[in-house]
């Protein structure tokens, strides 16, 4: 199992890695992600697993007959954020294949079909909709809406993937009643608990919001400061206000993406579009946080002579993972820590769709994620594989 895990990890390590930053660029339907999808099929074939793909690009490699309901699913995703880390997503897929190997070493033959999944566009790094593949797989997002999503170059999703000809939904997950996803932890809780593996309890509510700030283009030199209608000033004040509100309430608010028009060094901009990522420990707290930031933006816009419009692009409520499943797994794994996460996952989409879902976390010694500095120790990864195999042993018998 150790050799198999390390060999798979070594195969993935160079794919999509930037020689400058050491981070990963594995955006959906670009060359690196397509190479990973080919790798997935090769790993499935080497194990005699049968791969199914739905019209949206989601993949599942099945072990055992899929004729009956009660199927068990594990896996994660292969795509990354821009300049992301190595472990976010791929660790879950590699660990799932390694867990299949370990089950076979233990002489376990599933009485329920077991699938290894690779959901597409989990990060939303290309088409701006997080967990898009799993949303389409369960019917939480309509194809008619999703196919109009465009990337930064203006390429529509419908131009990249054909989708169902008649608008039908994916049938890839039909009969699946249980899903267990292993993921690198994206914080420091397991460091604080001094534990290699943990079980997730809930996903915080979170959303992405587009702030369109408009003003008037003007000359950077000849226009007096008091005569300007500068949306960049409105944005800057809003970003500072967002950080202030989030810190005061122990929530999360991040402006991480910006588009400026006309984007000239010697010109006052006419428009600034900024994307807010907001997360909170309850649905009410999230609504209050976003409203406080919107109100600050409106106040500064009035002062700056600009205008602001806020559009929610995707919002996910709190997800509570299946409590009996969570507690069974935590007990089976020897009372490992049970903790919430502030990051969104495909697991949350499947839980909300009525599939009993659990998540396992593997310790991240850096506590850093969505960054080249994201990390995990091999010993902890192997402990994660053992934990996943233990969980699946109970579920597939």
From TrEMBL:
The keyword Cell inner membrane does not apply. Keywords: Hydrolase. InterPro entries: Amidase_Cbmase, Bact_exopeptidase_dim_dom, Peptidase_M20. One of its GO terms (molecular function) is hydrolase activity. Pfam families: Peptidase_M20. Signal peptide: none annotated. The keyword tRNA-binding does not apply. PANTHER family: ALLANTOATE AMIDOHYDROLASE (PTHR32494:SF5), ALLANTOATE DEIMINASE-RELATED (PTHR32494). Belongs to the peptidase M20 family. This is Zn-dependent hydrolase.
